[in-house]
Amino acid sequence: MRSKLIILFYVIITPYLAISQIETVLDTTSNQLVNEEDITILLDSIDCPEALPASHFYTDAWKNEHTISAHIFKKDTIYVLPLENENTGKFVFPCSGHVISKYGYRGKRMHTGIDMKQKHGDSIVAAWGGVVRMARMGYYGYGGIVVIRHDNGLETVYAHLSRVSVRSNQKVEAGELIGRAGRTGRASTEHLHFETRFLYNHFNPSTIIDFDNQMLITDTLIVSKDNFQSVEAYRKKEGNTKDIINTDSVYTAVPQYANDSLATDSDIETPPKDPIEPQTIYTPQYHIIKKGDTLYGLTKKYHTSIKRLCEINNISENDTLHIGQKIKLR
């Protein structure tokens, strides 16, 4: 009788467990899976880098696997970054809740973002419009994570999510739902860990955002060497009273000038091409998991090995494949 009950448990319960795993990864505001017809995925953007946000800054290949993909930050360049334009839309504060941990060192450990207290399942939205570069559950101490690249040159990071409601390469609008708050990863309470980055370098979000009033405190970010400053702070520190840049020139990497001040409109020229030979663009290939797919089946279809697929996707051969999961082939 006991053996019959065990068999019955596996027959009835196991399919529901599998469905629950899929929903954890792909669930939106309802209990249904993401409908691929309702979202815009830039599947062709991998082969067309110029279609991606801020492609003139990000000269490396578009990758979905990690928060940091390359080291391309140039310390001898002043970057002028207007924060809002027609592609980013107006800034939207990503969540409700108050700050419980600020950016900076915790003893010897660097805390690279700002934490805001949440209730389990609270809505997390995109701060600006952009394209999702990374979306996954179980990413090291971050847990459930979404990384969005915006057309102002920034990337925003949203971590410890209980649910991820978007997919890599998906276009999102400012204020669009991207996930639900939780305490996945290394977290002692439900909260949103929020980061701002430029060229994969994190900086204090409070440089540009007033977290008490949930609004931007500047319209332009200035990045000089390792310093991230609002345009107002830069002017005050450098004693520069000139106009920074015509805001119609939305993305500009301004060369360092001899007088160590930013150029006026008439001073700005097209930056010279980098004398360094450009990188060879690596074009990854992916397979989107469908019902019935297995690692063994993928090895036969794409003439590769299970060991190779596991290595480049950081998975094991015993891991469960989820519908909609992206498997890197090379």
Q: What does this 3D model show about the protein?
A:
The protein has 330 residues and is α+β, with helices and mostly antiparallel strands. Among the domains are: 43-216, Glucose Permease (Domain IIA); 285-330, Membrane-bound Lytic Murein Transglycosylase D, Chain A (Roll). The chain has helices at residues 2-26, 231-238, 295-302, 306-313, and strands at 77-82, 99-101, 104-106, 109-111, 114-117, 123-125, 130-139, 143-150, 154-164, 171-172, 177-181, 191-198, 201-203, 209-210, 215-216, 220-224, 227-230, 252-255, 286-288, 326-328. The strands form 5 sheets. Strands 2, 5, 6, 7, 8, 9, 10, 11, 12 and 13 form a 10-stranded antiparallel β-sheet that branches. Strands 17-16-1-18 form a 4-stranded antiparallel β-sheet. Strands 3-4 form a two-stranded antiparallel sheet. The model is unreliable at 2-38, 245-251 and 253-283 (pLDDT under 50).
Topology, pairings included?
Blueprint: H1 2-26, E1 77-82, E2 99-101, E3 104-106, E4 109-111, E5 114-117, E6 123-125, E7 130-139, E8 143-150, E9 154-164, E10 171-172, E11 177-181, E12 191-198, E13 201-203, E14 209-210, E15 215-216, E16 220-224, E17 227-230, H2 231-238, E18 252-255, E19 286-288, H3 295-302, H4 306-313, E20 326-328
Antiparallel strand pairs: 1-16, 1-18, 2-5, 3-4, 5-12, 6-11, 7-8, 7-10, 8-9, 9-11, 9-12, 12-13, 14-15, 16-17, 19-20
